[in-house]
């Protein structure tokens, strides 16, 4: 597969132009482009501008409301609900996190559930936004079934990612963003696009047998066996049941039924450390923890110990200067 390296601002403008041509208002298009290029900057290309074509296909089929009237309803001092009106999850997630940040600033904690949403992109974007305000962020979202429960043959759960962002004083924030499957399905899509084999632990065929050909993957596997399975159910409870949304096999498909609104749920929580401890001391301790983790002697054949999110942050620093690398086919689509 051929690739091309392009400055992030050029790619961002191409995405905005594509979306506004589809009657997405420019403010929404700018936010979507920001979330997508955030992923590409971190070399998480499976959640980057690669997704633009799919979003446009769903828009054209009627599965996304391009000009959603997103609303917020406060249900208590630290709780609220955002109704996405079937719009873009990237925009809806931004609004939800902003409300959670405001609540956490005033009352120590902000917890927001989201209903009537769609795919929102990389959760790291939203928890990082909390860390920029020196707050702790947590995010969860359910997805349509593609993952077999531990011990099962047929899929029931989604990739159901969970993310945490924790600020530090001088160090970059600790960012943990992971699917509860061994990998996100976007990684399978990327392998298909690139014509590459995958590890056998990533997915199984229709008989539940692990495969290395990404084109034969029918279902994904959970990470850590029963541990990932358990966490996946928790994500479905928080972002699905708690939001009054569907769960598991009852969620409409992302890559099918393009004319149907997906009605996804999300969960966001923001915590203000200063309501629990001295914030400055907390931030300094995070610096110390990160520093000491990085200084742990590396195992054989390992360069050094990295903290979660650090490798992606190093990619981002480099790519902001050198540009992001995407598939040539994706670039050509954006330029059409």
From TrEMBL:
UniProt-recorded Gene Ontology molecular function terms: ureidoglycolate dehydrogenase activity
Ranges that cross the membrane: none
Top-level enzyme category: oxidoreductase
Enzyme nomenclature, EC number: 1.1.1.154
Keywords assigned by UniProt, alphabetized: Oxidoreductase
One Pfam family it belongs to: Ldh_2
Family: Belongs to the LDH2/MDH2 oxidoreductase family.
Protein's recorded name: Ureidoglycolate dehydrogenase
Organism in which the protein naturally occurs: Priestia megaterium (Bacillus megaterium)
């Amino acid at each position: 597969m051929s690739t091309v390296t392009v400055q992030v601002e050029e790619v961002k403008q191409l995405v905005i132009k594509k979306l506004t041509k589809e009657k997405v208002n420019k403010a929404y298009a700018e936010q979507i482009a920001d979330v997508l290029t955030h992923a590409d900057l971190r070399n998480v290309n499976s959640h980057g501008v690669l997704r633009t074509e799919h979003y446009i296909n769903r828009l054209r089929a009627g599965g996304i409301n391009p000009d959603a009237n997103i609303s917020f309803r406060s249900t208590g001092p630290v709780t609220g609900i955002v109704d996405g009106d079937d719009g873009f999850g990237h925009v809806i997630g931004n609004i939800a996190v902003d409300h959670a940040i405001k609540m956490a600033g005033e009352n120590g904690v902000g917890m927001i559930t989201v209903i009537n949403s769609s795919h929102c992109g990389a959760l790291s974007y939203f928890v990082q936004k909390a860390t920029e305000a020196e707050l702790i962020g947590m995010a969860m979202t359910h997805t349509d079934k593609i993952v077999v429960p531990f011990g099962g043959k047929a899929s029931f759960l989604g990739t159901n990612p969970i993310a945490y962002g924790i600020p530090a004083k001088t160090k970059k924030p600790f960012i943990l963003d992971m699917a509860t499957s061994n990998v996100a399905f976007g990684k399978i899509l990327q392998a298909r696009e690139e014509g590459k084999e995958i590890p056998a632990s990533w997915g199984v065929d229709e008989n539940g047998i692990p495969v290395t050909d990404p084109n034969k993957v029918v279902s994904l596997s959970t990470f850590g066996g029963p541990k990932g399975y358990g966490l996946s159910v928790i994500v479905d409870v928080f972002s699905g049941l708690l939001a009054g949304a569907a769960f598991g096999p009852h969620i409409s498909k992302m890559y099918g039924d393009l004319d149907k609104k997906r009605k996804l749920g999300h969960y966001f929580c923001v915590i203000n450390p200063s309501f629990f401890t001295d914030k400055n001391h907390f931030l300094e301790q995070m610096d110390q923890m990160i520093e000491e983790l990085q200084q742990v002697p590396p195992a054989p054949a390992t360069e050094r110990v990295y903290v979660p999110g650090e490798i992606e942050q190093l990619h981002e620093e480099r790519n902001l200067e050198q540009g992001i690398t995407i598939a040539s086919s994706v670039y050509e689509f954006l330029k059409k």
